[in-house]
Amino acid sequence: MLEAAYNLFVKVLSLSAMASVLALLILLTRFLFKDRLKPTWTYLLWIPLIVRLAIPWAPESTFSIFNLLPLEKETAQSSFIPSAQSEVGFTYVPELTGGEKEPPSVTGIAKTGPLPGESTSDDVAQVNPHTDSGWEPIHVLVLVWFGGAAVVLGMSVRAQLRFTARVRQETEIHSSEVQRLFKSCKQEMQVRRPVKLIGTKQIAVPTLLGVMRPKLLLPTSTLHTLETNGLRHIFLHELAHVKRHGILLNLLTGLLLAMHWFNPLLWYAVRQMKDDQEVACDALALKHLEPACHRSYALTLLKLLETLPDPIRLAGTAGISSSKKEMERRIIMITRHKKFTAKSSMLGLAVIMILSGCTLTGAKLNSASAPAMSAPATFQAEVQDKNTTDSSVKGTLLAEKNGITVSANPTGENTLLHKVTVDVRGEVSRTFLWNAGEDKTRPPLIEEADVNGDGTKEIFIRITTGTGTGLSMSEIHVLQPASLEELVVEDPIETLNQKLKSSITHRNNHTYVSAELDGKHLTKVYDYTEGAWGEKVGFGSIVSYELIDDQIVAHMSGAASMSEFPLEVIAVYGKNLTIESAQMYYGSFISPPLSEQDIKSMMEKQLPASGWTFSKDGDQYRVDIDPLNGVGEGNSYKINPLTGTVHDVTSGSPLRSLVNREAIDLWNISNGTEYQKELYKLLQPIFDTEGFKPTDTDWISGFIGDGYLFSDVRQGSREFTIKVDVFTGQWEEIPDPYQ
């Protein structure tokens, strides 16, 4: 049993090495012909890789690239496949018996030494791994490989079965209009296989499931957020997966990856193949749309991929999936979609034939090239780290401070991916593969600060990766100054997407958003339900970083739909470079908390030109207005920078919001009854969203003195007190302030 596993293991190593060469050639071909090959041919470039991994035997050919790369050497009588000892510091040598000349075989392990023909009696200690002398290191490697393959395959099967069980009881969509549209799309795509259209609440994006009897799982929310054209775009894309046999190919690659789980290059290659699969399905769908509809198709993708959670990623599924980096490529392809000529098809066919001819064949061997006593070839795999110390890679200077320079060279294939070289005063330099969008108005920020508390100032680099209307996306990198080793910084997006609890519901022509973070709540109500709303508030790629008192601070906007961002979160990092605290704020045109200059400039627009003073009062800001004509007492107001709420100094009652421009202005209401009535109007949406009921006829039990008010509420059978900012919907449960 162990012997069979050993033979399979060494064969998998050989196939993995040859497939790695093929994967690199495919990636190079994609880069060289990216604008000349249509998406279908780019996708088909990956077929030789699947064949190479799936079929262990290959015919000999003088055209094979492996004539130049000795990954597999065969003789007329038998074959030698380099084993894993080569990778752990051992080399195989042939074992001689009684002067007979036999082809090399895996019978001895020795330190690298003289070639055959030289004296080896003193230098080579031969051990037979197949004797009863005990276990050898190679046996342990075989078991590690076999165990890893079993774990990867088992996890994949378990996830597939669990997902299938979740949606097994879902029923077909009964809407005659939707079914009619789906049937029309099947006829357009010439899909003759039966495909069921299933409505489900178990997933967030459309997903195709099943090889023999495919089902298109359509989130029920999609039926409400997308119009007929949007649904048609989804149907055409998913039916393109059916026509391309995408699920079958994904299942096969999943099985092969389980066998080659130790090879990161193959994992990367398969991910690129699936990206090309999506682009090819986009191209096929666009063939059935008028050119004027291509932009609308792109907008449908954006609605699904930007605002909704990550898609289902299982081997037995296919759907409208894409990474944020790959989305740019897809949108560009869609908006610039063009018809390719027969010449481009001939080019694609020629490229695939050349790739297949030189990589799906084995090395050609003859008697001259394969003597009976030839020295065995050792397997050498060159692994290039994405971070290299080659200081010759310079490029365009992006920023410089205190002798630290950051320069970049584009990689060519990706508009964001650059080879970024960091040089520290000519003493040490290192090149990284980073996102680095070129923006002269927002050059990289370079700071030296002790962000991890080890007593040494690390190098903090913030690089702009993308810009839009009034916003920018950035990434940060923290480097050790001596070695330029990059430290791991917790991803705020992933953390907040898990930590923030939220819901988005629709009823009575209103959309209700409720969010909670570390016991702090925020509620917002929109007076419409149309649009691509998500099921919860999510964080995308828009992050802004800054360094405050040697602490990393991240600012993120939470999205409820394509156009609505009801909240913002500020995350503060601790010395272990993980998020130490996170605070949620009302999403507005200005980032909270408000600075002194922000508050002063906004108050200046609402106050007389003179006759007032502005000052800081504790953790808030204060405006004192002189009495009219110098008679009587003037008015005094405070502004809470956390909420932007202006409130009366004496009573603490809220009067006006500096951040919510749609909120009712209570500044000039002097009648107490009218003022209370307007406060109730502001509280009503919060009560409706959270299911609160006032415990008394008077909804308000007091004011806290910083713009918040108290309210005793009932939720189900529970009664408790909340403090709430009526203008921003920020609230939290507190102990009874009067007990």
Could you explain the architecture of this structure?
- By secondary structure, the protein is α+β, with helices and mostly antiparallel strands.
- It is built from 15 helices and 35 strands.
- Strands 19, 20, 21, 31, 32, 33, 34 and 35 form an eight-stranded antiparallel sheet that branches. The chain has a five-stranded antiparallel sheet with strand order 26-27-28-29-30, with helices on one face.
- The N and C termini lie far apart (75 Å).
List low-confidence stretches. 72-134, 365-393
User: Helix coverage percent of residues?
Assistant: 25-40%
Count all strands and give the number.
35
Number of helices: 15
* Coarse shape: globular
What distance separates the N and C termini? 75 Å
Query: Which structural class matches the secondary elements?
Result: alpha+beta
Mean pLDDT value: 78
Main β-sheet description: 8 strands, antiparallel
Alpha-carbon Rg, integer: 33 Å
Strand content: 25-35%
Which oligomerization state do the chains in this entry correspond to?
A: single chain
What attributes does this structure have?
single chain; 739 residues; five-stranded antiparallel β-sheet; 15 helices; globular
